[in-house]
Amino acid sequence: MRAYQTRPASAFPFREIRYRKQGRIATIIIARQEQFNCFSTLMLEEMTTAFRDITEDDAIGVAVLTGEGQRAFCTGGDVREYNAEYVSRPRDYWKYIRRFRVLLDSILHNGKPTIARLNGMAVGGGNELQMACDLTVMAEHAYLKQVGTHVGNVAAGGATQWLPLLVGDKRAREILFLNRPIPARQALAWGLVNQVVPAVKKASAFIEGATEEQVRSAVAGRDGYSISLELLERAVEELAAKLLESFPDCTRYTKEHLNFLKEFVWSSTVGHGADWLAMHFTGLEAFEGMSAFNQKRPADYGMVRDRLANDDSPETPWGANILDCPACDASGLPARFTHCGRCGAALKPSLSAKKRAAKTKLRRR
């Protein structure tokens, strides 16, 4: 039996993606619409499996990656899963980042042109996912956005590596420091995507160059506006058909050569990026960022900066582990604890720790 044979898409019992093959085109659909198509650990594994099948299937010439619904292509990692699984096990977050790395590698090195079909917003890791693809077609109501420095994370899963290549150094810094949404037409002008197609309708007519207000009305389904992905589907089908009008080996090798700079910066940095992210995951910035997200409130950046300015142990939520309990001999207790977590006895913080905490409290007023 031949080692590499065509397998029907139905042979893969995926739970969080949908996978189909039609002619020479394979399509992966992220199917977590209720969670805005954010990653789960399982989904990363399933997508990698699907891309490996695409790589090994000689009947497939083009891959398409998209999301379910009209709101989101992908919004990056699932913060609720982070809280449940990885805050208490940062070593497992390192494994999670490694799984994301393997997924992006499976896109970079599948030997087939891969189209990102942006049916909605691509945020955080979702934008990194579309940047890993070879070509991107974007619906006009969608937008791109990075969020790392606003949620206690660093976009070292593709954005810090590839944005300077795509948009230039200064724009990359603007995107990654400010985390502002990038509307579709701006994304096209900056070279982040290849094509933008109308998606906003009023009655039965598409609106070319829809305004922000028209986009908001269409997403909300009010005032006669609506979202339609009809033109997006057509544009992706036409692009895929054109890509198939070429020699497969020449296309594969062209992709490999085009990947040189992307692969160079990616492989040079993603490993130590994963290590830093895992070590940082139990720190104050990640704690405050994820807490604010889950509690649907603004993150308190000022609190962190005040603690930094006052030498008030800004790296950890409750301060450096420097206190000892005089009653039960427990050691390594956080500097901001007033009572022992083991026996409940009152603790005596050092004079310097008291002064730092008092300065921070005064600044907060």
Which strands sit side by side, in order, in the main sheet? Answer: 1-2-3-5-7-10
**What is the highest CATH level, the class of the largest domain?**
Alpha Beta
Question: Helicity, in percent?
Answer: 40-55%
Q: How many β-strands, per DSSP?
A: 15
> How large is the radius of gyration?
24 Å
Major sheet: 6 strands, mixed
Q: Write the CATH architecture name of the largest domain.
A: Alpha-Beta Complex
Mean pLDDT: 94
CATH H level, superfamily name of the largest domain: 2-enoyl-CoA Hydratase, Chain A, domain 1
Number of helices: 14
Question: What's the oligomerization state?
Answer: single chain
Order of helices and strands: EEHEEHHEEHEEHHEHEEEHEHHHHHEEH
Structural class: alpha/beta
Low-confidence stretches: none
Provide key terms for this protein.
single chain; 365 residues; alpha/beta; 2-enoyl-CoA Hydratase, Chain A, domain 1; 6-stranded mixed β-sheet; 4-stranded mixed β-sheet; 14 helices; globular
